[in-house]
């Protein structure tokens, strides 16, 4: 069975209970107090880890994109640069966020969008690295993350098998402590595009622990992914889906995340084993109807 230790007292693996990640991402809206509240709520309902996104704005996006107007209803600035800068925390704020999570005893880690952000996260003693779907083809970033020798979680959205082959080959040469997440990078994802059957395909092809990073409406499909072999579930997490911001509408609130935790644990427990046997709870009926 594939299994590895992802933190001091947490493991991920085929025979391990589902590892649930609350993807805070940008849903803090650049407000550290909202970030604290999201971490607190995640801890209260039993989430295993919270995740943020870290970007060096000038390194992560082209100048043309950063200079372009960004006058949408969910924008926090007149240009894309101003919008992104409004959603980034300073190093000092990130230290406070990581320290707060540590105080609450919940795993806190991040997705770096560039090499400079990896260097910053190393200063913060970031325990796990997430490679986003956007960065599956960013070989230099993946190489830098591999150099940290930390566990890796990588999403597979918007990627061909050929692109995944290259990224997975690089990761597997450096570590066996990784998880590959099935993902469809549509926000939200329509049911007919979720394609959960890809989960066992990825597991069999890459012989690794797999999971699911979902952007669909509701919670049922995330829970169903457990039956197909997912052992990590990542969902965007918000205090209020109606809040201003680019990701809130495709996120789930506290009550929904709580249900994912409860139902995915139940689903995992119900999987049992592949051995067909007579259970103790069946013996009385067996005696009654068969006489033995």
Key phrases:
8-stranded parallel sheet; 292 residues; single chain; globular; 13 helices
SSE topology sketch:
Layout: E1 3-7, E2 10-13, E3 19-25, H1 32-45, E4 49-54, H2 57-60, H3 63-67, H4 80-86, H5 91-104, E5 107-112, H6 115-123, E6 129-131, H7 139-147, E7 152-155, H8 161-174, E8 178-183, H9 191-194, H10 198-206, E9 209-214, H11 220-227, E10 232-236, H12 254-271, H13 283-290
Parallel strand pairs: 3-4, 3-10, 4-5, 6-7, 7-8, 8-9, 9-10
Antiparallel strand pairs: 1-2
Helix pairs in contact: 1-5, 7-8, 11-12
Overview in brief:
α1 (32-45) runs parallel beside α5 (91-104) and α7 (139-147) runs parallel beside α8. 42% of the residues lie in helices and 18% in strands. It is α/β, with parallel strands linked by helices.
Characterization of the model:
- The protein is an alpha/beta fold.
- The chain has one domain: Aldolase class I (TIM Barrel, Alpha-Beta Barrel).
- Helices cover 42% and strands 18% of the residues.
- The chain contains 13 helices and ten strands.
- The strands form two sheets. An eight-stranded parallel β-sheet has the order 5-4-3-10-9-8-7-6. The chain has a two-stranded antiparallel ribbon with strand order 1-2.
- α7 runs parallel beside α8.
- The protein starts with a strand and ends with a helix.
- The relative contact order is 0.14.
- The mean pLDDT is 96.
